[in-house]
C-alpha cells in the first residue's frame, strides 16, 4: 500500500475544493482553474517557510521545475492547439458554408419529425469531427430552430439531439474537442509515448456515433419531451398575451412635451417601451430622445397591476388591442423579434440587464427571459444572467444583425446575413483539410499544422487580423492552462498512484474489461458535474497508474476516460453544448437525466466493449 504523505493530503484538499467550485460555480470555471494553479504555486514556498520555523519536517514539492511546471499550461501544446482550432473553426464559420449546407439539407425534410431529427444528427455529427463541436452547435442552432418552425415541430424534439450528436461527432478525430487534444497531451507527457494521431480512434468514434444516432432516432425520440409547443408566433411561444398591450397618450396627460427617457424609461414602473406609433410611422429603439405628443401610441411590456397604476398616474388610455409578432415587426418590415441565447464566455454572465445597460448598449428591448422551463416576464432588469438564458428581444433589423455577430450571443433564428465570405469557402475548407492531412500523415505535429492553418486563414483573408482574438474562447484556454498543473501535481505527489491502487483493488474480483468500465462510468459521473477538461486531467493519471499495476495497456484505459469525459449527457452543466440548448429548448433539468441517462449507460457499455475489441487491453 502506498504511504500517504503530506503532499498527497495537500493535493487531495485542493482537488476537493476545486471539485466543489467546479460543481457549484460561485465563480466561472476558468477562474477556479487559475485559482487552482496559483494555490499549487504557493504551496511549495509556504511549506519551505514552515520548515524553516520548525512547523514542518520536509518541504512539500509538487513541481520538479518551479515555477515552470506550474505555469506550463500556458505553453502547453494542448492549449495552443485548442487555441488554433478555435481560429480555424471561426474561419470556416465566416464563410457561411455550414449555414448553406444546413439550409440545403433542411429543405428536404418537410414536416416529418423523423427526417428533421435525422438531418439534425446527420449534419452536426460529421461536422463536429473537424471543427470544434461547441462551435458547430452554435452555428447550427438557428438552422435547427427554423427547421422546427417550418416543419411545425417542437424545437425541444431537435435541440437536445443536436447537443448529443455534436458530442458523438467530436469523438471522430483528435481535433473534434479540446478534451481529445488535452487527453493526448497528458497521455504523451506521462508515458513518454507519441501523442494520438488524427484518426487513431476514429473506428471507435464511428461506432459510438452510429449507436448514439440509432438511440436518438428510436428510444431517445420517444423520451425527448416537447417542452415548447410548435408555434409560428414568438409572442405565443413566450406566453406574452397578458404582458403586451398598447396605450395612447391623452390630451391632458402630464407626459405631453416630455422626453420618453425621463417620462417613461427612468421610472420605478416595471414597464418596457417596445415601439412608438405616431400616425403612419412606427419607431423602435432608441426612443429615449423623442418628445411625447398627444395621440402617441406606445406598445408596452408590463403586468396588469403595473398597467392599472400607469394608466391612473400618467394620463394614458388602454387601446385594448392584442399585440402579435407581426405587429411588433411592422416598424421597418424586417425581422425585429428574435430569441437570443447568452453564450458561454459572454461578458453578460453574472450581469443583469440593468447593470449591463442592455437597452442602451444594443438598442434592443428584452420582452421575456426563459431559463430552462421557467418563463420570466416581469421584473427582469436586476436578474443576474446565466449561460443558456434565452431572451426574447425586440430591436431594429440592424440591431439584430449586430447581436448576431456579437460573440456574447447566439441568435436562435436564421437571419439574413450579408457579411458571409462565400467566395472564401473553398479556401477555408481547403485550409482545414490541409491541417488534418499534415497531422494525419505525421509530417508535422498537430500543434504546428493548426497554428500554420490559423496563419493561412488570415493570409488568405478568410479572417481579418482583428477577428483572431474574438475567435478564441478564452475561458476554455485559461481553464486548460489552470488545470494542467493539477495533473502534474497529482503525479509528482503520488496522489494518482494512491487513487490507482484503490481502483486496482477491484481488479481482484473483476475482469480487466470490467475495471475499464469502472473508469468509464466514474469519469462520466464526474464529467456531468464538473468540466470535462478537469475530469481528463484528474482521471488520466489514475488510469495510467492503474493500467500499469494491472499489466494492461495504458492507451486503452486513457481512451475509456477520454470518451467518457466528452460524452456528458445527464445534466445541462456537464457540457457547454447542453447549456446552449437548455433555454431555447425550454428543458427541465430532469430531461437530461431522462434522455441522457439511458444513453450514457448504452454508450458506456458500447465504448468499454469497443475499446477492448479495437485496442486490446493487454
- Termini Cα gap: 24 Å
Spatially, the strands of the biggest sheet line up as 3-2-4-1-5
Task: Work out the radius of gyration.
Answer: 27 Å
User: What's the number of extended β-strand segments?
Assistant: 10
Find the structural class using helix and strand composition: alpha+beta
- Can you give the helix content as a percent range? 40-55%
Using the alpha-carbon principal axes, give the shape.
globular
Largest sheet: 5 strands, antiparallel
Uncertain regions spanning at least 5 consecutive residues = none
What share of the residues does DSSP label as strand, in percent? 5-15%
Number of helices: 26
Mean of pLDDT: 83
Domain RCK C-terminal: 232-316, 325-409
Subcellular location: Membrane
GO molecular function, one term: monoatomic cation transmembrane transporter activity
Protein name: Potassium transporter TrkA
Descriptive overview:
It is a single chain. The protein is of the alpha+beta class and 618 residues long. The protein has 26 helices and 10 strands. Among the domains are: 79-229 and 421-474, no CATH class; 235-327, Alpha-Beta Plaits, CATH 3.30.70.1450; 344-407, Regulator of K+ conductance, C-terminal domain (Alpha-Beta Plaits). It has a 5-stranded antiparallel β-sheet with strand order 3-2-4-1-5, covered by helices on one side. A 5-stranded antiparallel β-sheet has the order 8-7-9-6-10. The model has no long low-confidence stretch (mean pLDDT 83). GO terms for molecular function: monoatomic cation transmembrane transporter activity. Keywords: Membrane, Repeat, Transmembrane, Transmembrane helix, Transport. It is found in: Membrane. Residues 232-316, 325-409 form the RCK C-terminal domain.
Amino acid at each position: 500500500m502506498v504511504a500517504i504523505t503530506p503532499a498527497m493530503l495537500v493535493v487531495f484538499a485542493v482537488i476537493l475544493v476545486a471539485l466543489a467550485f467546479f460543481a457549484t460555480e460561485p465563480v466561472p470555471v476558468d477562474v477556479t482553474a487559475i485559482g487552482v494553479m496559483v494555490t499549487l504555486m504557493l504551496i511549495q514556498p509556504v511549506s519551505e517557510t514552515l520548515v524553516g520555523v520548525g512547523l514542518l519536517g520536509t518541504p512539500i514539492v509538487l513541481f520538479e521545475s518551479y515555477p515552470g511546471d506550474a505555469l506550463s499550461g500556458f505553453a502547453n501544446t494542448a492549449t495552443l492547439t485548442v487555441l488554433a482550432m478555435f481560429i480555424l473553426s471561426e474561419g470556416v464559420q465566416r464563410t457561411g458554408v455550414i449555414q448553406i449546407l444546413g439550409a440545403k439539407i433542411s429543405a428536404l425534410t418537410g414536416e416529418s419529425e423523423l427526417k428533421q431529427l435525422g438531418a439534425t444528427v446527420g449534419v452536426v455529427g460529421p461536422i463536429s469531427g473537424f471543427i470544434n463541436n461547441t462551435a458547430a452547435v452554435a452555428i447550427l442552432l438557428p438552422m435547427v430552430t427554423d427547421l422546427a418552425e417550418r416543419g411545425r415541430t417542437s424545437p425541444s424534439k431537435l435541440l437536445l439531439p443536436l447537443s448529443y450528436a455534436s458530442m458523438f461527432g467530436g469523438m471522430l478525430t483528435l481535433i473534434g474537442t479540446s478534451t481529445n487534444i488535452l487527453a493526448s497531451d497528458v497521455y504523451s507527457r506521462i508515458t513518454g509515448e507519441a501523442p494520438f494521431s488524427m484518426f487513431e480512434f476514429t473506428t471507435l468514434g464511428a461506432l459510438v456515433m452510429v449507436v448514439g444516432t440509432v438511440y436518438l432516432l428510436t428510444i431517445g425520440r420517444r423520451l425527448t419531451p416537447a417542452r415548447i409547443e410548435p408555434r409560428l408566433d414568438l409572442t405565443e411561444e413566450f406566453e406574452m398575451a397578458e404582458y403586451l398591450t398598447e396605450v395612447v397618450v391623452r390630451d391632458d396627460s402630464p407626459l405631453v412635451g416630455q422626453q420618453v427617457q425621463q417620462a417613461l424609461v427612468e421610472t420605478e414602473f416595471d414597464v418596457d417601451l417596445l415601439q412608438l406609433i405616431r400616425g403612419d410611422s412606427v419607431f423602435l429603439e432608441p426612443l429615449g430622445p423623442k418628445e411625447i405628443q398627444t395621440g402617441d401610441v406606445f406598445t408596452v411590456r408590463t403586468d396588469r397591476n403595473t398597467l392599472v397604476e400607469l394608466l391612473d398616474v400618467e394620463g394614458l388610455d388602454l387601446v385594448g388591442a392584442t399585440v402579435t409578432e407581426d405587429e411588433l415587426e411592422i416598424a421597418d418590415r424586417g425581422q425585429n423579434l428574435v430569441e437570443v441565447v447568452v453564450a458561454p464566455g459572454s461578458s453578460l454572465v453574472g450581469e443583469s440587464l440593468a447593470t449591463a445597460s442592455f437597452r442602451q448598449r444594443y438598442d434592443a428591448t428584452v420582452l421575456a427571459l426563459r431559463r430552462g422551463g421557467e418563463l420570466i416576464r416581469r421584473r427582469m432588469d436586476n436578474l443576474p444572467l446565466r449561460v443558456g438564458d434565452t431572451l426574447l428581444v425586440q430591436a431594429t433589423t440592424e440591431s439584430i444583425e449586430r447581436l448576431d455577430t456579437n460573440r456574447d450571443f447566439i441568435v436562435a433564428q436564421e437571419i439574413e446575413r450579408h457579411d458571409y465570405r462565400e467566395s472564401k469557402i473553398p479556401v477555408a475548407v481547403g485550409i482545414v483539410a490541409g491541417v488534418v492531412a499534415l497531422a494525419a500523415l505525421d509530417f508535422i505535429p498537430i500543434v504546428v499544422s493548426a497554428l500554420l492553418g490559423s496563419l493561412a486563414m488570415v493570409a488568405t483573408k478568410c479572417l481579418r487580423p482583428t477577428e483572431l482574438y474574438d475567435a478564441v474562447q478564452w475561458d476554455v484556454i485559461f481553464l486548460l492552462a489552470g488545470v494542467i498543473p493539477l495533473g502534474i501535481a497529482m503525479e509528482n505527489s503520488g496522489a494518482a498512484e494512491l487513487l490507482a491502487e484503490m481502483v486496482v483493488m477491484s481488479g481482484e474480483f473483476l475482469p480487466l474489461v470490467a475495471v475499464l468500465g469502472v473508469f468509464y462510468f466514474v469519469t462520466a459521473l464526474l464529467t456531468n458535474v464538473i468540466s470535462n477538461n478537469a475530469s481528463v486531467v484528474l482521471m488520466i493519471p489514475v488510469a495510467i497508474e492503474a493500467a500499469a499495476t494491472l499489466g494492461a495497456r495504458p492507451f486503452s484505459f486513457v481512451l475509456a476516460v477520454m470518451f467518457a469525459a466528452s460524452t456528458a449527457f445527464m445534466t445541462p452543466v456537464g457540457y457547454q453544448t447542453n447549456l446552449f440548448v437548455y433555454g431555447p429548448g425550454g428543458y427541465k433539468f430532469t430531461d437530461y437525466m431522462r434522455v441522457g441517462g439511458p444513453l450514457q449507460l448504452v454508450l458506456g457499455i458500447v465504448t468499454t466493449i469497443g475499446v477492448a475489441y479495437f485496442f486490446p487491453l493487454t
